[in-house]
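Worked example 2:
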Amino acid sequence: MIETDLCVIGGGSGGLSIAAGAVQMGARVVLIEAGEMGGDCLNYGCVPSKALIAAGEQAYRMGRGGAGIGGGMPVVDFGAVKDHVAGAIAAIAPHDSQARFEGLGCRVIRARARFIGRDRVQAGDQVIHARRFVIATGSRPAVPDVPGLAAVPYLTNETIFALRERPEHLIILGGGPVGLELAQAHRRLGCRVTVLARSQALAGEDPELAALALAALRSEGVEVLEGALVTGVSGSVVVSLDDGRQIAGSHLLVATGRKANVDGLGLEVAGVAFTAKGITVGPNLRTTNRRIFAVGDVAGGPQYTHVAGAHAATILKQTLFPLPARFAPRAIPRVTYIDPELAHIGLTEAEARARHGDSIEVIRLTFAQNDRAVTMGETHGLLKLIARKGRPLGVSIFGPQAGEQIALWAILLQQNLKLSALTGTILPYPTLSELSKRAAGAYFSPRLFQNDRIKRVVRLVQRWWP
C-alpha cells in the first residue's frame, strides 16, 4: 500500500504538468503510466507529425524554387526522414522522462491502473491510496466499423511514423486536420495521396477559409474526395465507395477521429460516470466522485495538447489548496498545420450570426495586403475577422505562419480586450502580424474617415484654430 496526496494516472501533457506542479509545491505525488512517457503528443502526435511536415516543406521549397532561385526535383530518403522524426522525439523525450520526474520527487509506476475502490487504485502489484486522483489517460485512434477493415494492415497515427518505406499510394480515411496534415506531408515527400472524407473536409472550420485550404492541397496533387462513404475494404488496399468506385492503394491510414481511453480503469467501481465521449466532468473538471478529477482528451472536451496543459492550473488550485476553480476560457485557439496553415479562435461567421444576427461586422484582408507576405512571395491567404461593438468575436487565418499569428488574437479574446488594444500597439515592420493590426484598424476606418460629422469638426477646428 502506497499512501500519497495525489495520484496522477497518465503521463501525457496534462498528467505531467499536474504531477510536476504538485510535487514541486510540496505534495506527495504518484504518477502511473503504462505506455510511453510523454503520451500521444510526444510519441505519436504533435511532435512526430510536425517533424514530418517540416521535412515535407523542405522538399517542397527545394522543388519549387522562387525569388530567382531555381528549383529541382529533391532527392528524398524516406528512411532518413523518419530518422529526423525519431530524432525530434528523442530530443524532447528527456523533459517528459521517468528519470526527470523521479528527480523532481514523484514516485513513477509503469503499469496499468485500475480503480479497486473510490479512493484506491491497483497498478501492477502496488495499491495506491490517495487523497485526490487525476485521470489523464488521453485518447486513441477511433477505428470505424467498415467491412473488411480489420483484415487489412491499416495504419493510424500510432504506427505510421514507424513506416520507413515510402508509400506508393497512401489512402487516408478522414478529412480532418490529422488526415490532411499527413496527406500533404506525404505528397510532398513523393507519395500519391487520396483523402476520403465522409462529409466535408475540414468540416469544423469556416467554409470560406476551408475552401481556400482544400484548393491549395489539391493544387499540389493531393486528391481530396468529399462525401465519400466507404462501404468496404478488401485485398491489399482496395477501398470501395457507395457510388461504386473502387480505389486501390499501397497503404491505408485511418484518421477518423479519437476515442477516449476509459476502458479497463474500473470507473464503475470508483463511482465515476462516463460515456463514449469520455468521463463526465463539471466546469471544475471534477468527476462524480469528488476525490477524482479528469483532464485532457479523456475529459470529453476539445482534444488539443494545449487544452490538457491548461487544465493543470485548474486542477492544482483544487488539489493543493482549498480554492474553487473553473476551466472556463473565453476561447481556445486551434491550428491545422498544413501549408499554408489554417488557424482559428472564437466564433466562426455562421456561429456569430446565429448568436448576434446582423449586428456583427466581417472584415476580410488578403495576404497580398501585407508587405512581409509580398517580400516572401507568400501572398495566397486570407484573414477573416468577426467583430461586434469594438471587440473581436472570432478570427480565422489561412496563410503563412497562421498558427503564430493567431496568438495575438488569443490574447485579445482571452483577456476580453477591445480591438483598440491592437490598433494602439506598435508592431515591428515588416511582419506578418501587421495584417492582424490592419484588420483591427479596418474596423475603425469607416467610423473615422467616412464620418461627415468628424469631417465638419476638423474643418471647423482648422478654420478657427490659430
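The CA atoms of residues 278 and 300 lie 5 Å apart. The first strand starts at residue 2 and ends at 9.
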